[in-house]
Amino acid sequence: MEVKTLSQIDLSVNPVIAQMAIHNHEQILFCNDNATGLKAIIAVHNTILGPSLGGTRFWNYNNEAEALTDVLRLSRGMTYKSSVAGINLGGGKAVIIGDPKKLKNEALLRRFGKFVNSLGGKYITAEDVAMTSRDMEIIKMETDYVSGLPENMGGSGDPSPVTAYGVYVSMKASARETWGNDSLNGKKVLVQGIGHVGEVLVSHLTKEGAKVYVNDINQERLKEVANKYKAEVVSADTMFDLDIDIYAPCALGATINDNTLSKLKCKIICGAANNQLADETIHGEAVGQKGILYAPDFVVNAGGIINVYYELDGYNRERALAHAEKIYDTTFNLFQLAKAEKIATYKAANKLGEQRLEAIARINAVL
Questions:
Q1: Distance from first CA to last CA of the chain, Å, rounded?
Q2: Residues paired with residue 57 on neighbouring β-strands, in sequence order
Q3: pLDDT digits (tens, 9 = 90+) for 257-289
Q4: Lowest-pLDDT range, 37-41, 152-156, 169-173?
Q5: pTM, whole model, 2 decimals?
Q6: What amino acid positions are annotated as catalytic residues?
Q7: 3-state percent helix, strand, coil for the chain, nearest multiple of 5
Q8: Strand order in 268-269's β-sheet?
Q9: CB-hemisphere CA count at 13 Å for 105?
Q10: Cβ of 310: how many Cβ atoms within 10 Å?
Q11: What's the rounded mean pLDDT across residues 50-78?
């Protein structure tokens, strides 16, 4: 796959198409509807392996440029995530711009569904930040290209348990690489973000005997989860000063940056958040130089896409969990590839994803 660098592209000439060219995105659909207040962007990165599938994120971005950058990064991540996970889906993502508490309603979601439908199956949506399975049910009123539906509609329901299980087994593979065995008993783990995925991860960790620290912007939920699992609450101001073994970012991305890396005292970074590295190249190299083992996010959090993939052909939770368990071997094997080729772990993960994409592309060309 041809990947251009920013130095090769003049973003001032045509900032949208130029950004698409950086990672060879196939298509962007800009969506606007004055009647409902809908402003959305759907990005299709790659469909070599199959139709693009990725969640819709409802977020109050500062501006449209920020939203575009996010949807492009997220959709590319979905391509690699599906490829490394060994499923036949491409990478896509959607963002709806605005405050979901003020804007989200049936009319807006159904209008968005019409835009999804206009792509004719090239993009299949699912839930993401600030979206629920009930929202997917509403979107389905206008399109069949929806996954993550409630169980009573033949869907898989909440994907969080499968996503969290994938993060958990990836963390154990990371522990094996770092300490020679995969036990998390007694390990000190900071879980930043205790939404549905974060909470299930905390449950797995505490059952194994890990010492868990938790942080979240929702103070009420933070207190609830901390009490439920006997975890220790830490503030945003002090959490990166903790002496811990594992940092598990499970909220929004870019928490691995110049500021946090100057403070982080851990041996492993392994969490559910997408795009954890503020700058993939700079911070993907910096973590290794600091002696931290980074488990690439799109490998670690692939349980969610695995879960909805099995929904497309008649859902079976046991099959989804069995496939998610393979994330352990995938994570451990990419560490071996990184060591053998003396490259950063993010590069090893990208290489695994690109190898499968290129192989299937060649097969399609022959056919």
A1: 19
A2: 95
A3: 999 999 999 999 999 998 899 999 999 999 999
A4: 152-156
A5: 0.87
A6: 93
A7: 50, 15, 35
A8: 232-233, 211-215, 188-192, 246-249, 268-269, 293-294
A9: 7
A10: 22
A11: 95
